[in-house]
């Protein structure tokens, strides 16, 4: 049974066909340090950067991102992000002199160049969250960049620090429970879609997926060999091409629809997902589940625009047929509930 969204499966048949230089390309931007997840990367970076006492942080964020900064006992001042996922300049300038570093997020793959230039102008340490933009090539880099590999690749674990300077970090290579359960979930997801779509298999992969998320810990544990293998053998060129094709197709389909607002004005270099604003978000999301379409809500924020935000998956394994199905059912559901 074909599913759109939900836990991404590991298809080992495609991973045996190519190798890439993704890790080597990242190394060309500096030193890299790998961890089991993105929040651990943030925590370990904060612990090493003793010169940072106060950090300017966007007010639209996933709670798991700010927890490791608080654990590292850094003072946080927030700056406002608008509904286009750009920094509010007036608010930023009001607080920029109070901080030692600025945390910049490449929301859904787009880069806020104005924010970056302001940070450079005021000579602040720049930390960029590249989780959503790690397939893109930018002319400028942060002093430090952090990322979670799970938002782009179908890996069970993986976080990373990219640093211009060498850091004294030695990750622990032990294997955690979260990694094991996430791996089970992804393999069961493959079996469910390709071999046996019984409710028993479905229940198991959902159970393991949810349980693994609850077991994610902030530590210095390293990325698993399996995730490194997947990343090193993934077809990066196809991933980039298909994401762009799927995004452009949805732009065309949603254009002129007053009930679906594309949240980003300009397509990112390589988009992570298609963020849209709709009314009755939670109800529509639950109806889509009945059609095996699982559209995630990324970052349940207190900001007003967050209550209307959905992110349509455009991962490279999805075809135009998948995008068309998603678009049609989404439009029909919105029309029936407007």
Notes on the structure:
With 338 residues, this protein is α/β, with parallel strands linked by helices. Helices cover 40% and strands 15% of the residues. The chain is built from 12 helices and 12 strands. The strands form 3 sheets. Strands 2-8-7-6-5-3-4 form a 7-stranded mixed sheet, sandwiched between helices. A 3-stranded antiparallel sheet has the order 9-10-12. Strand 5, helix 6 and strand 6 (125-129) form a beta-alpha-beta unit. It is globular and about 55 Å long. The two termini are 30 Å apart. The mean pLDDT is 91.
Features:
338 residues; alpha/beta; seven-stranded mixed β-sheet; three-stranded antiparallel β-sheet; 12 helices
What is the overall shape?
A: globular
The biggest sheet amounts to: 7 strands, mixed
What's the rounded overall pLDDT mean?
91
Residue ranges: pLDDT <50 for 5 or more in a row? none
Spatial order of the strands forming the largest sheet: 2-8-7-6-5-3-4
Overall strand count: 12
Q: How far do the termini sit from each other? A: 30 Å
Concise account of the structure shown:
The protein is of the alpha/beta class and 338 residues long. It has helices at residues 12-15, 22-27, 38-48, 63-71, 89-95, 113-121, 177-194, 199-214, 225-233, 236-254, 281-289, 320-336, and strands spanning 4-5, 31-35, 54-58, 75-79, 101-105, 125-129, 144-148, 159-163, 261-262, 273-277, 293-294, 309-313.
């Amino acid at each position: 049974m074909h599913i759109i969204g939900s836990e991404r499966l590991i298809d080992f048949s495609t991973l045996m066909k190519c190798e890439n230089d993704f890790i080597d390309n990242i190394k060309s931007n500096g030193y890299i340090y790998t961890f089991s997840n993105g929040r651990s990367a943030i925590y370990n970076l904060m612990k090493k950067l003793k010169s940072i006492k106060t950090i300017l942080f966007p007010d639209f964020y996933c709670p798991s991102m700010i927890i490791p900064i608080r654990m590292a006992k850094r003072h946080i001042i927030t700056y406002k992000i608008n509904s286009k996922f750009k920094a509010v300049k007036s608010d930023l300038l009001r607080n920029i002199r109070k901080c030692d570093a600025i945390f910049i997020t490449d929301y859904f793959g787009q880069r806020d160049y104005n924010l970056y230039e302001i940070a450079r102008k005021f000579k602040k340490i720049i930390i960029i969250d590249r989780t959503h933009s790690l397939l893109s090539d930018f002319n400028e880099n942060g002093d430090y960049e952090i990322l979670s590999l799970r938002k782009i690749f179908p890996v069970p674990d993986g976080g990373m620090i990219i640093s211009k300077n060498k850091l004294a970090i030695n990750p622990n290579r032990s294997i955690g429970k979260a990694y094991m359960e996430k791996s089970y979930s992804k393999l069961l997801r493959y079996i469910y879609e390709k071999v046996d779509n019984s409710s028993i298999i479905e229940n198991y992969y959902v159970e393991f997926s949810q349980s693994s998320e609850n077991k994610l810990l902030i530590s210095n544990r390293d990325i698993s060999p399996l995730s490194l293998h997947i990343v090193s053998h993934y077809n990066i060129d196809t991933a980039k091409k298909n994401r762009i094709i799927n995004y452009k197709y949805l732009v065309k389909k949603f254009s002129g629809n007053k009930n679906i607002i594309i949240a980003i004005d300009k397509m990112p270099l390589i988009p992570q997902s298609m963020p849209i604003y709709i009314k009755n978000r939670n109800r529509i999301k639950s109806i889509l589940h009945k059609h095996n379409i699982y559209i995630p809500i990324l970052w349940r924020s207190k900001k007003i625009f967050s209550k209307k935000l959905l992110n349509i998956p455009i991962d490279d394994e999805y075809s135009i047929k998948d995008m068309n199905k998603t678009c049609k059912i989404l439009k029909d559901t919105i029309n029936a509930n407007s």
